[in-house]
Amino acid sequence: MNNQVFYSISKIIERDSKSTTYKFALLRGVIDIIQENSPYIRIEHNRVHIPTGLLIEKWLLYYYPILESEIVIPQINGETNLAFASQFKQIISYYEVRGGFSVFYNDLKSRGIPNEILADFIELARKLRDTITKMPMKYIGRSISNDFYSIFQYRNQPLRKSSCVDIEYLIHNFGTFSISVDYYEAFRILGSFISGRDSILFKWAEFSVNASGNNLSVDKVLNEVLKGPITERNILESRKLYKEILKREGKVYCVWTGRHLSNYDIDHVIPFSVWKNNDLWNLLPSDSKINNQKRNKIPSPEIIERQKNLITDYWGIIFEHQTERFQKEIQVALLGNHSISEWKESGITQLQNSCHYLIENRGFEEWEI
């Protein structure tokens, strides 16, 4: 890893053009994807390649609450609007009476975008792709180089028609972008600091405060910017669904000890506080006392190896009862380009890799029994 890369990143954040929040959204998105250890990340010829669709998903999540907010949160200097604002507001308007941000994200992740707004959503996704690749990707790094696309490169591809448009559709149909291995390593190891209090998120908030003529506070802006699509209600509903399925199965065993349980918790394997993931593969039954011991710690790769048969048994039960949702969720989070037919082996391996990454590279506390 090159020390010059850290200097360049700092210079980009501080000195690159700040006419919009696009730069912050691009850097935040790339860091989030890398920090989540996406299985779609691919290293080839000293460059790291990532599906642009994953970045489009991040921008959908970042800008939805901002554009939905009753508080005006400026994202661009002057009187002009964001390049994709009109398309985005059509989607927001559609979901306003159907459950809002959370329902939209559930459709994107699991059910697919409804047919009546399919054309509008694809147009929004195209607009986001074009904005990302032709604006911040092109100009970012101009403070350290006179060249365009000095940090990011991208490759688009023709869109294919599909009966189901969801996150997998975005991943496989909107091309890829790449960064050098040096930048990837910097984002992987120090990304949580780069996007933390003293950098991207706060710079983003400060931009909006300044653009509002200081009529907003940083706290108010951050409250909107940091809103997530998964609510407590979503978590409770998923846990309830899981318990209903287990009830039909009869006996329930603690995934971590193998002991038979009469009362149990539904545990997030990778804690929700660490990784905002409410996928069914990430929910497993656990003894309440064990769950309290584990709390926000990360299970070691070794305990996952020891308990992999029980983990995959529960995955199999969910696969049987919630086939479509399970397949979509595990494909995007754990399998990546591996076939769904390999979900047991590849899923366990990637789960171990993700836990190892969170423990060794991001410093989260390891948990063992």
How would you characterize the overall build of this protein?
By secondary structure, the protein is of the alpha+beta class. It folds into 2 domains: 3-225, no CATH class; 232-367, no CATH class. It contains 17 helices and 10 strands. It has helices spanning 3-15, 22-35, 52-68, 85-96, 101-111, 118-134, 136-139, 167-173, 181-194, 200-211, 218-225, 232-249, 288-294, 301-306, 308-321, 323-335, 343-360, and strands at 42-44, 47-51, 153-155, 176-180, 252-253, 260-261, 265-268, 283-286, 298-299, 366-367. The strands form 4 sheets. The protein has a 4-stranded antiparallel sheet. Strands 5-6 form a two-stranded antiparallel sheet. β5 (252-253) and β6 (260-261) form a beta hairpin. Residues 262-299 form the HNH nuclease domain. Pfam families: HNH_4 (PF13395). This is HNH nuclease domain-containing protein.
Task: Describe the structure using short key phrases.
HNH_nuc, 2 domains, 369 residues, single chain, four-stranded antiparallel beta sheet, alpha+beta, HNH nuclease domain-containing protein, two-stranded antiparallel sheet
Instruction: Give the C-alpha Rg.
Output: 21 Å
DSSP helical segment count: 17
Q: How do the strands line up in the largest sheet?
A: 1-2-4-3
Domain tally: 2
Distance between the termini: 35 Å
Which regions contain 5 or more consecutive residues with pLDDT less than 50? none
Overall shape: globular
Proportion of helical residues: 55-70%
How much strand? 5-15%
Domain HNH nuclease: 262-299
InterPro entries: HNH_nuc
Protein name: HNH nuclease domain-containing protein
